[in-house]
Design brief:
The chain is of the alpha+beta class and 441 residues long. It has a domain of 267 residues: Anthranilate synthase (4-Layer Sandwich), CATH 3.60.120.10. It is built from 13 helices and 22 strands. Strands 1, 2, 3, 7, 8, 9, 10, 11, 12, 18, 21 and 22 form a twelve-stranded antiparallel β-sheet that branches. Strands 4, 5, 6, 13, 14, 15, 16, 17, 19 and 20 form a ten-stranded antiparallel β-sheet that branches. Strand 19 and strand 20 form a beta hairpin.
């Protein structure tokens, strides 16, 4: 922020709040100037720190600090949403995510489910930027709430340019090794196994150990620049670790009772020129193995949505082009029943068949039995939830960073016809963008 004016403006609004206004949820906002939201986030001392930008063109960019309330279960989050909706007035946005497999041990400081109501929101939109202070009065003393809000405003500092990314010297270790991977693929593609489980999404953790890991916000900022048609997210619950990513896949977007989701599965690389690129795309759409992989995904999504919706429609298969990859995608539109909440959707949709497999339970059983690394929030969920609308991404194409190590994750859907060495190469292609940013490509 170029001046202290926005902070002073919020303090003034806080000072002049009438007692009758101090109930439920309230958002105080003021225009401000900011060049780089991640440069602003990176220098703040308040935690948690979150960043979110949805995939839509012209999406609002959000940086968040602090937590007024945090919820470690969907039931608690839904109860809070419902209580505020019933009280009327302004409605907040909650941000957070969920692990791939909430029943399994995960990453140390990342609960299986964690959504929070941020204290500070800095948003950049086409018309400029807005700094907001969130307040919550219902179940806390208004004096304490205002004192906490003041303390948070006083802690804010001006943005700084992000540090430059230096190429890293690192030790690389893949879990599983290529040999173990080949054995797993052999087991999944065995006709006896395919008979009951036609698709399992196997994943790999690539550990890069280095003397000094990069600033996560500098890394995300560079990554974002080359990942146009993707979601962009980052979360630091503590100063010592961060989870960032640029996922291409939407879990769902809800506007009132209208829902959009997608089947994104089936992968090929980009071509050297437009002609080769088109040829690869046409080959992908015609390819039996990849078409089967996509079909496994959309059939399961349709099955899950059916009891929740009054109508469901599926679009045509088409190709989406990312920086290094092309995927098959089908959009799915649904009209939800009145009683369906985000809790119902998040209890039934993830893990999607694009990151777990089909049928879900037997695919998960294989993953739990074989994968020794912890997926944590990789291939889980991250995004925004509010009473009126929600937008959530599937957390693929991501990195988990602590002070000693960067962990990169990639997965591949194994179906009839999958070849172990081809799928291993696909894993490398999926982490190629971030590897090149780290000076390792």
């Amino acid at each position: 922020m170029h001046s202290t004016h926005p902070i002073e403006a919020l303090k003034y609004q806080l000072d002049t709040l009438s007692d009758s206004a101090k109930k439920g949820f309230m958002r105080l906002s003021t225009p401000c100037q900011v060049d780089n939201l991640m440069g602003w986030l990176s220098v703040q001392s308040v935690y948690p720190r979150l960043y979110w930008k949805a995939r839509d063109t012209n999406a609002v960019e959000c940086a968040m600090l602090g937590a007024i309330k945090a919820f470690d279960s969907l039931a608690a989050l839904q109860a809070d949403l419902a209580a505020l909706a019933e009280a009327g007035g302004q409605q907040p946005n909650y941000f957070g995510g969920m692990a791939f497999d909430p029943g399994m041990p995960g990453w140390e400081h990342f609960p299986a489910c964690h959504f929070l109501l941020p204290r500070i929101e800095l948003k950049r939109h086409q018309g400029g930027a807005t700094l907001s202070l969130n307040l919550r009065f219902d179940d806390r003393s208004s004096c304490a709430e205002i004192a906490q809000a003041y303390a948070c405003l006083d802690a804010l500092v001006a943005e700084q340019p992000l540090p430059r990314l230096q190429p890293l010297v690192y030790q690389r270790e893949d879990r599983p090794s290529q040999q173990e991977w080949a054995a797993w693929v052999g087991q999944v593609t065995n006709p006896d196994h395919l008979g009951h489980t036609p698709k399992v999404v196997l994943s790999r953790e690539t550990r890069l150990t280095t003397s000094e890991t990069p600033n996560p916000w500098a890394l995300l900022s560079r990554w974002q620049a080359g990942a146009a048609d993707c979601f962009h997210f980052g979360i630091q619950l503590t100063p010592h670790e961060a989870f960032i990513g640029c996922p291409p896949e939407q879990l769902y977007k809800r506007d009132g009772r209208r829902l959009i989701t997608e089947a994104l599965a089936g992968t090929t690389r980009r071509g050297r020129d437009a002609g080769q690129d088109q040829a690869f795309a046409a080959e992908l759409l015609a390819d039996k193995k990849n078409t089967l992989e996509n079909q496994c995904v959309y059939q399961q999504i349709l099955t899950q949505l059916e009891p929740l919706s009054s109508q469901v429609q599926m679009g045509e298969a088409h190709i989406i082009k990312l920086r290094s990859l092309q995927h098959i995608r089908r959009l799915i539109h649904a009209e939800l029943h009145h009683s369906v909440t985000d809790q119902s959707l998040l209890s039934s949709l993830p893990p999607t068949p694009a990151v777990g497999g089909v049928p879900r339970e037997s695919a998960l059983a294989f993953i739990r039995q074989h994968e020794r690394h912890q997926r944590g929030w990789y291939s889980g969920v991250f995004g925004r939830i509010s009473h009126a609308s929600s937008d959530l991404a599937v957390t693929i194409r991501c990195a988990y960073i602590d002070s000693e190590m960067i962990r990169l994750y990639a997965g591949a859907g194994i179906v009839a016809g999958s070849q172990a060495d081809e799928e291993w190469r696909e894993l490398d292609t999926k982490i190629a963008d971030i590897m090149s940013l780290l000076g390792m490509g």
